[in-house]
């Protein structure tokens, strides 16, 4: 074969191969929609040219900026931006991602401070996670839930004894500014160190200084090892503030679905409602009461519905929520407080009057309630604290009269003196949650009126002495008491005798 013939044969072979491939080739077209930014202002972008974008779909802007499609109008989309908008310009391209906003979840988040997009904020490098969950997820169905039956000990005497919280419950913490709302939530986190409860603290629009204080307190008490902080600050875009509690809840739900007990704090939902109002007004949605949009109740109810106690078939995990809201001038019947009071299973109301009197935690017992926690409370508490609320209410009423210098009969004086001791005993310094036994000993002394002869100023010292008794308590009594059965008469007598001996030095010294 000549050279020319050889080359012709090879070229024919090559064409055969190309023709064969070409016949088998099936062209596939993937249309990609690209929209354009029409306008940008205050965390909102208006976009045209994405006719197939879905509600709440994540849209991608230049410079790694993302936004959520919120208003789907006929010709344009109102997008809530999840980052700084200062580099975004009219005419910039926008593309669809085909997915909703999600957040990384997993054990790698414990001990970390992240933002609602899962980006680390603590300078400790990237977050090790294996899974992502959408930030908006349906609440567990009714058949997946079990009744609230296990207590969530806060370590605060006033809460655990009088307004108990159960695992899976939603208990609102509300009060004016600077009344100790965050402190109650923090104390509750600190008290979970040996309780096998994981915690998620969601800071919504907080000042950087307050957030730093929270992180420092948790680090100082080694509470970060079982806590995740989802942080947004006041100067973050409102879109980021808006998604923060949903993202934090998805992180908590991941743990709950692994069968773990989880506590989540939303600090605070007033800032969340304000961020949502800002977004809604910018999106020109019609304003309703106090200029909040009509669905403000729904955004909080769908969030808090996700807290629950799952039944055993679903792993038996639980998610307890302590949402916080700030009232103005003690007005608990404003729009947002009434909404949240009706959504949650009870509230802890913090009174500025008590705070000014240094009755801390400033929980107003008369205006606080726990609708399901009583069923979960340890029986030992129920027995001891049964009359406490009533005695305290009587005392508060009589104390008002006593201030006018009215002459009191012996019985009334006794009620007042006893009430003063109750108030002293319910006081508690911050960051010092008390174990169950120490609380029970103090409540037992109160209910047996053993502290009524101790001068008020000596109550803290007397309490400390009683706490030592609790620390050195024989195991048989601890098991009997905490094991939810009543204390036997011998054990009760033993405790009463020990307590009287301990309190002897405190009686009638001025
Ligand atoms: N039990 C307590 N014992 C001593 N100090 C307390 C106690 N509870 C709160 N405080 C103090 O009261 C101040 C206000 O507390 P905190 O920041 O918890 O209030 P807040 O209502 O969350 O405030 P904000 O309205 O700024 O969110 C803090 O300085 C805190 O140290």
From TrEMBL:
InterPro entries xrefs: Alt_ATP_synth_F1_asu, ATP_synth_asu-like_sf, ATP_synth_asu_C, ATP_synth_asu_C_sf, ATP_synth_F1_a_nt-bd_dom, ATP_synth_F1_asu, ATPase_a/bsu_AS, ATPase_F1/V1/A1_a/bsu_N
Superkingdom of origin: Bacteria
Catalytic activity: ATP + H2O + 4 H(+)(in) = ADP + phosphate + 5 H(+)(out)
ATPase F1/V1/A1 complex alpha/beta subunit nucleotide-binding domain boundaries: 155-370
PROSITE patterns: ATPASE_ALPHA_BETA
All copies of domain ATPase F1/V1/A1 complex alpha/beta subunit N-terminal, residue ranges: 32-98
Enzyme Commission number, as recorded: 7.1.2.2
One Gene Ontology CC term in the entry: proton-transporting ATP synthase complex
Family as reported in the entry's similarity comment: Belongs to the ATPase alpha/beta chains family.
Protein name per UniProt: ATP synthase subunit alpha
Lineage, highest ranks first: Bacteria, Pseudomonadati, Bacteroidota, Chitinophagia, Chitinophagales
